[in-house]
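Researcher: Quick test of sequence recovery. Tokens follow.
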């Protein structure tokens, strides 16, 4: 698997029919999920953790639709759910 650019990742994420409306939201979701993984959460996809960093695992989880999130009414920033 080769590393893709953020634009390619965003295109994949929007094709997955999630409510990800911008590449910035994609990055925010992946960053929040990456923090969860670094704190001990288990990955929701089958991936070798020794070969991939938490940021890559988190981005892949978001793209595949394995990370559930909702928007806060106040600030409209997504919150990744554990």
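Model:
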């Amino acid at each position: 698997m080769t590393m893709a650019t953020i634009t390619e990742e965003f295109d994949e994420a929007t094709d997955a029919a999630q409510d990800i409306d911008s590449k910035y939201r994609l990055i925010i979701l992946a960053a929040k999920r990456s923090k969860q993984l670094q704190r001990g959460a288990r990955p929701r996809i089958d991936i070798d953790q020794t070969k991939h960093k938490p940021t890559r695992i988190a981005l892949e989880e978001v793209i595949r639709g394995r990370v559930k999130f909702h928007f806060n009414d106040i600030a409209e920033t997504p919150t990744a759910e554990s």
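The chain has one domain: 6-80.
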